[in-house]
Structures are given as C-alpha cells and as structure tokens.
Amino acid sequence: MNFFKGHPVLHKYAFDNWHKNLFEDYIKDRDCVSPEPYRQWHYYNQKCTIAQAFDMEINGLSEPRELPAPTIRLAKSEAIAAINTVEEVKQKTGKDKVIVIQPFGRGAEVQGDFIIDPSSRSFHQSYIVDIINDLRKDYGVIMMSEFQFPYGDAEKNPIAWPQADIRVWAGIIGSSDHFLGCDSVGQHIAKSVGKTVTAVIGSTYPENISYVGDKDFDIIDLGEGKRTFSPIRLTMEDYQDMMNDECMEMTQNDIQKVVTSCRKRLGKSKTYSYTDTSVKSTTKPCCDNKGFGK
User: Fold this and answer.
1) Contact in structure between 286 and 90 (CB atoms under 8 Å)
2) Would you give the DSSP letter of residue 18?
C-alpha cells in the first residue's frame, strides 16, 4: 500500500488490510482472488517478469505483454526530506555525487557476527565492504540497510545509514546519482524514479526480477550457469537453495566489475567544502555520530 498512496487509480481502489469495514463492505459479497505470480508458468520458466506475471494473473491474460515503467508519487514533505538527507551527506562528505547501496534482500538475517542470506539473493558482507571502501573515496555513500556492519575507518570518508520509511527511500534514491543493489526492492524503486542501476544477481533470474536490456541497467549476473530455479510458493523443497548457496560468491574480478560499472555511471566526482547551510533537514539526521559511519 505504501507505493499506492498518491496514485490516481491505485490509491482509490486498493485498501490496507486494517481498513474499516473492509470485510463487510468489500469482501463479504465477492469471491476472493489471490494473484500469485510465482505460480505463473511463464514466470517459473523465465518467460516474463514478476510485474508481467502479476498482470497476467490479475487481468486473465494468457501471454505476457509489454508494461510501462512503474511510477511512485511522493508528497512534498517526503521529497523534501529525501533531498535534505542527500544534501546532508554531500555536506558531511564533501563529495558532490552520491550513490545509494542496498546490499541485502529480505532473506538476509544476522547470525552472530555475520549477516547472511540463505537464499543467496544478497551480497556477502566481506565483498560489499570492499566495494564500499573503493567507492567512498570519491563519492558520498548512503546505505539502504537495516543492518549496520564495520567497514573500516569511519572518520576518513564516512558513510551514511539513514533511518527512513520506504517512501522517503524512494525520494533518496531519486535524489542520488546512482543505485547499486541486489535482487531487492531498491532496483525497482530506482527504475520507478529514473535512476541508473548496477544490479548484482545471484540465485534468481534477471529475466524474472530485473530489467534485462534496459539502457539504464548494468546487470552483473553472478549466478549465470550455476543456479537452479528455486520454486518458492510452489513447493517446500530446500534442495535448490542448497545448490544455489555459492551463487553470490565474488572474485576480485567480479568486485572490480561492480566498481567499474558504478564509476562509469557516476562519472568523476568533485571534492569540496559545502558552505551553504540554509537547507535544514526535516528528518532525524542520518549523518550524526550515531547514524553516520559506524
């Protein structure tokens, strides 16, 4: 529902599950249909994207069709909060270009001192640290992650860890210069707000969850030739995830490909001191001692 808000059609005809009298007024006298894109033949045979699978399910189509790019409409307060966050990062780092990095998908979890993703859809922690440490030399880095982790000297070229809701994150990505992520929501937000993307894919298929052939997307497919399709929401097998366990392993060459893609899209960054303090943040600071560069 978060992204339906403000949309001229979806806002009117979609409801939160806690909507008053939702059952009595809208559900009781109708059949319930639960669209499930993962159970679409075209989806699990890599013949359509997840958006096309939803389209087929909802509209009763037998074949996928071309769809327009998704859109997100932000309120002024959300857009300003996002702009202020990005400007704060520029002021704190002295860099004029900013990259948003989403290293983990929803499957990531903390186990002791490690952040892992059993579904192999997220960056390995050590690899993302290497990538961050390269990019933060020349760019402001904003981490889109609920998990924080050590990455080295926080005083020299610090990075930001804002705490924001998903709509403000859409604004932050829209106000940044490039997005780096994995198989997760960030790349879809970046597509919606017209940003360039470096997407690193492991156990899933780019044809299903990304934007193959899009001029604004650099897709680095680590799982190509290695992965097995994981039939989530179809069966309860764990064999496929076990077979895909190494799909997000990266060599130094892979890390360099990611860094090169980001630098190519970002271009050269200027380093200078910001003196304009007229713009004040409307959200909790992301760049104070607690939230900036642990």
Assistant:
1) no
2) T
Q: CA 173, 177, 181, 187 torsion: positive or negative?
A: positive
Bridge-based pairing of strands 114-116 and 217-221 is unpaired
Determine which helix (DSSP H) or strand (DSSP E) holds 142, and give its type and residue range. Answer: strand 140-143
Across-strand partners of 114? 111
76-266: CATH topology is Rossmann fold (3.40.50)
115 phi, psi to nearest 5 deg: -110, 115
Amino acid at the residue 244:
N
Every domain range in the chain assigned CATH 3.40.50.2000: 76-266
The Cα–Cα gap between 120 and 122 comes to 6
Considering only CA atoms, give the Rg of the chain: 20
In angstroms, rounded to a whole number, what is the distance separating the alpha carbons of residues 251 and 69? 33
Q: Identify the bridge partners of residue 218 per DSSP, sorted by sequence position.
A: 198
Adjacent-strand bridge partners of 292: 160
Selection from 248, 144, 257 nearest residue 204 by Cα = 248
Give pLDDT < 50 ranges for the chain.
276-285, 287-294
- CA 129, CA 163: separation in Å to the nearest integer? 20
Q: Are 256 and 57 in contact (CB under 8 A)?
A: no
Amino acid at 225: G
The residues near 168 (Cβ < 8 Å, ≥ 6 apart) are: 78, 81, 82, 85, 283
CB-CB neighbours of 116 under 10 Å? 16
Round to whole Å and give the CA distance between 70 and 192: 5
Helix (H) or strand (E) holding 60, with range, is none
